[in-house]
Amino acid sequence: MKFKKSVIGVAVIALPVAGLLLAAKSPQEAQAAKVARGKYLVAFGGCNDCHTPMKMGPGGPEPDLSRLLSGHPDNAHLPPPPKLPPGQWSVVVAGLTAWAGPWGTSYAANLTPDQNTGLGIWTEEVFIKSMRTGKHYGVARDILPPMAWQSLAALTDEDLKAIYAYLRSIPPVKNRVPAPAPPSGEGSFE
């Protein structure tokens, strides 16, 4: 009887431990799950709608996936925006990667991990701080409309870390996006 109780006691302890060991993910599996979550959040958030340039396809404009999340094309030179009527008007130009409004002209940023023109030098901490504060690099100029950083600020740290992990996993694209321009159209916010 004593032996039977000992076996039952060991089984009661061993089964949950064995279950935890079997359920544990390797670091590679955990990272892959994090990247997959980030990809889901980027798709759900519509990041491609503004940060991936468009190209003409057989059915009309379509995302240029060779430039996935690379922002406003550096070779898409735009004339100054038209004079807007009084009020809260804004215009969208150049395949949804540039906007003009009362804030000036803003361009979709390069979110790829390119070291010189994208987020390649951004740390996870800087990325999260930027999404929480609405400040470039977390401390510099304002992140301008139409970027919905306020919605991203409501995400958990784990969700923002997943988005960062996904953005680090995509191919880097060299694309220097123009600096935003103030309403006067002269100079920049940089």
- Beta-sheet strand percentage? 5-15%
Tell me how many strands there are: 5
Instruction: Report the sheet with the most strands, covering strand number, pairing sense and barrel closure.
Output: 3 strands, antiparallel
Order of helices and strands: HHHEEEEEHHH
- Globular, elongated, flat, extended or rod-shaped: what is the shape? globular
Structural class: alpha+beta
The mean pLDDT is 84
Low-confidence stretches: none
Gyration radius, in Å:
23 Å
Helix content: 25-40%
Give the strand order, joined by hyphens, for the main sheet. Answer: 3-4-5
Termini separation: 79 Å
Helix tally equals 6
General description of the model:
With 190 residues, the protein is of the alpha+beta class. The chain has a domain at 31-53 and 65-75 and 90-185. It has six helices and five strands, in the order αααβββββααα. It has helices spanning 2-23, 27-44, 47-51, 124-133, 149-153, 157-169; strands at residues 54-57, 60-63, 91-93, 98-101, 104-107. The chain has a three-stranded antiparallel beta sheet, with no helix packed on it. The chain has a two-stranded antiparallel sheet with strand order 1-2. β3 and β4 form a beta hairpin. α2 crosses α6 and α4 (124-133) crosses α6. The longest helix has 22 residues, at 2-23.
Helix-strand layout with pairing:
Blueprint: H1 2-23, H2 27-44, H3 47-51, E1 54-57, E2 60-63, E3 91-93, E4 98-101, E5 104-107, H4 124-133, H5 149-153, H6 157-169
Antiparallel strand pairs: 1-2, 3-4, 4-5
Helix pairs in contact: 2-6, 4-6
